[in-house]
Amino acid sequence: DEPVEWETPDLSQAEVEQKIKEYNSQINSNLFMSLNKDGSYTGFIKVQLKLVRPVSVPSSKKPPSLQDARWGTGRGTAVRRRTSFYLPKDAVKHLHVLSRTRAREVIEALLRKFLVVDDPRKFALFERAERHGQVYLRKLSDDEQPLRLRLLAGPSEKALSFVLKENDSGEVNWDAFSMPELHNFLRILQREEEEHLRQILQKYSYCRQKIQEALHACPLG
What are phi and psi of 158, to 5 degrees? Predict the structure, then answer.
């Protein structure tokens, strides 16, 4: 992946209206864009969640499924205790947003949909494009407007798609997590280590058994 800058030209009202007509004529679903009387417009953006670390949710609630997030069930109260879990790597969410909705507001909306109580600053929204066999990524600034980018790029997911990722490019800043979160991460690492060790022991036990069977099958001398 390589960073790249997208050009985002300013459009006149007539150009916006024409772009929306072209956009709607190219989609095969009911996720249309609509022009409002005040000159703004509404539409849908699809965001893929590609998080490699667990997220925190209220411990009094079970981890939300994709169905829960889709219908907005399980609206929470004040958070006192937290638990952590991994969101599915293929989690995708459609959001209905305004043209003036900012990237930071999209992140906050996604976290609410999945009942995530982590600080939104831990996450970032990226735009992704495929060009000539190459994949390009760019992190959106807080004030950029994803629906405007969607309109300019058209409906093609190869031309532009949105991805939610952790807001870092290097080592994990463990100081940004609370003590309960850190303890929970240690428990997760321990379970992963135990499972990995079990798989290794099982593999070598199987190999040892096959070698012993081969030795017993070989004639003496």
Answer: -70, -35
Cα distances from 114 to residues 5, 120, 163, in angstroms, run 30, 13, 15
CB contact at 8 A, 46 and 92: yes
For residue 51, count other CB atoms closer than 10 A to its CB: 20
Give the model's pLDDT for residue 139: 92
What is the separation of C-alpha 44 from the centre of its chain, rounded to a whole number of angstroms? Answer: 16
Do the beta carbons of residue 97 and residue 40 sit within 8 Å?
no
**In contact, 47 and 29? CB cutoff 8 Å:** no
The CA distance from 101 to 44, in Å, is: 11
At the topology level, CATH places domain 13-58+80-171 in: Ubiquitin-like (UB roll) (3.10.20)
pTM: 0.64
Q: Where are the domains of the chain?
A: 13-58+80-171, 175-217
Place of tokens 């309109």: 151
Q: Please state, rounded to an integer, the average pLDDT across all residues of the chain.
A: 83
* Alpha carbon 6 to chain centroid, angstroms: 21
What phi and psi, each to the nearest 5 degrees, are found at residue 201?
Answer: -65, -40
Q: What is the DSSP string of 186-210?
A: HHHHHHHHHHHHHHHHHHHHHHHHH
Which of 21-30, 36-45, 181-190 shows the lowest mean pLDDT across its residues?
A: 181-190
